[in-house]
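re: ur question from earlier - yeah i can do the single chain one, its not a big deal. heres the input i used so u can compare w yours
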Amino acid sequence: MPTEFISVLSLLVVAVISTWCFKRINLPPILAYLFAGIIVGPSVLSLFDHPEQMHVLAEIGIAFLLFTLGLEFSLPKLQAMRHLVFGLGMSQMVITTLLASGVAYLFGFSTSAALVIGGIIGLSSTAIVIKQTTEMGTLNTPRSQLAVSILLFQDLAVVPFLIFIPLINNPAESSFTMLMLIALLKGIVVITTLLLIGKWVLPKLFREIANTRTDELFVLTTITVVLMASGLTYAMGLSLALGAFIAGMMLGESQYKYQLESDIRPFQDILMGLFFVTVGMQLDLPIVWEYAFIIIAGLIAMLALKVLIVRFSAWAFKTNDNDAWAAAFKVCQMGEFSFILASLAVTHSVLDSKTASILVSIGILSMICTPYLVANSVRFANVFAPDKTAGSINNAQVLEQIRSGHVIILGYGRVGQSTARMLDMENIKYIAVDIDPIRVQESQTANEPVIYGDVSDKSILQSVNIDEAVSVIVTFDHIPKATQCIDCIRGFNSDIPIIVRTRKDYAMDALYNSGATQVVPELQEGVLMLVSQVYHYSGVPLAKILKRIRNERKGHYDHLHGFYPGETTEVSYESVDKLRFMHAININRSAWAVGKTVGQCDLLKYGVQVRKIKRGHDVIIDPPMQEVLCDDDILVISGKPQRVERAERFILDGH
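and the output i got, formated as tokens:
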């Protein structure tokens, strides 16, 4: 059996076991991959003689990650963030590089070596931060957008260092200036080319591919587009990730956005795991033990320095204090491109191998700390600047608002959200529980009383005051999970009415036998029947129930249309033009719509409805046409996916 096969198989076994163990103790998979890399790396098992050869596949994983990020950040959204990318991002990179370089110079490094060390420390980990915030469902929050702005500029800032390092020991001012100008020209040409291709060619290409109704061809085309865009930027001396990001940004404005995200995610997750394994392989344990004090001191100093620089750089751009602190804790680590710069510096004798190993060790340890810092960034931010603004509510705030006499909605998908809207019409208090982090974040941003959690978890049921609720609605269509959930509820409260929705008629007996009070089947009529039961158990008069249902049928179920898409939302070629999404838009001061009335925005021409405006602690439902939109408003709109995208673009830049 070939040695390479045994090495790869061993790596997979170690990765599987590590991931399983880390998940059992509630640690993120990223740490498991880093740990697996350390185990199979040169310092422990030494399974790979040339671990750097795996780095190409790992970089492709980063490219796929940036492609999915580009799908989230359309060109209008990026234009609205330009003052953050080229303002906050640039100031963070420049200040961090100069301060870190100054410290290195004081410790005896040459000016050129100190500048390289400053650049290595100035970069942050795009891969970890974006992956972690995406999994948490917080990518679209203001604090995460601050972090992403910094990361995007850092990816651009890598290019001058890639040019600068090889020239240090063979300096020629004219050649260096010429190379920088050529690199700038290449960058303008390649980015312009990708933007034009993305606007005029890619939509037509994917339209033709989608018409074939062949999933394999759609996936293959997506992978090819990502790799071609990455290869083009790489050939021009830029990073692979930049090309993938631009390609995603262009396709993010198309109707295929959600299908692309779904298709690319398996490849992205596998290759990103490989990337973190290769990072772990670079940790030299003998160096860590020998210079442990220097590495730990350097780690603490770097984290503190970058937190303070990001925080006070953000202050200059008048950002929210709490968001600035949270973003600072997200991007205070060292980045994956730092390892590339360190390796290049050793190759060209700018840094010695010992110094590079110490820097890499600090970087890996900072990456190990990052998942914890990202997950708790808001909590740390509240220590330094308590959030006194309305912002997006969290689990604790939702639970504080609901004490007793409420309805519990388990599952906040399409049926759960439609049910919640009907309850709002009668001012019936409710609280919803959902396991989809993206959906929960979108809903909480729009001020919906939704918490994240497993509906069959007894502690979650206790936290929503199951003993004090008037009824429970089970809206998800998963029979084993539903019966398990009913058993848990009956363990707390044997008398509470439990109303269950299902698509499967054959499952009704099983649900009744498990303790359901009422089982309601299927779609819009099912929603109306479900709500009629909730109204009844909430004490609404029968005549009013019948009138409400009659009005909904007469209005073609208008209040039941539209839902917040989440990570598990299924979108196919056939359904993409039939679905009606709801979406919460953060209106910042750069948005075109600030100061305009709802009527002036005229979103009806896009086939989009304005459902409500969240302003501070106030929520304006079905706002009048003369209502003026203000900075920091949350605008909730509904419509078909592509129309929602167009309406958001119009709200942000007026085009």
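The chain has a mean pLDDT of 80. not sure if urs matches, ping me
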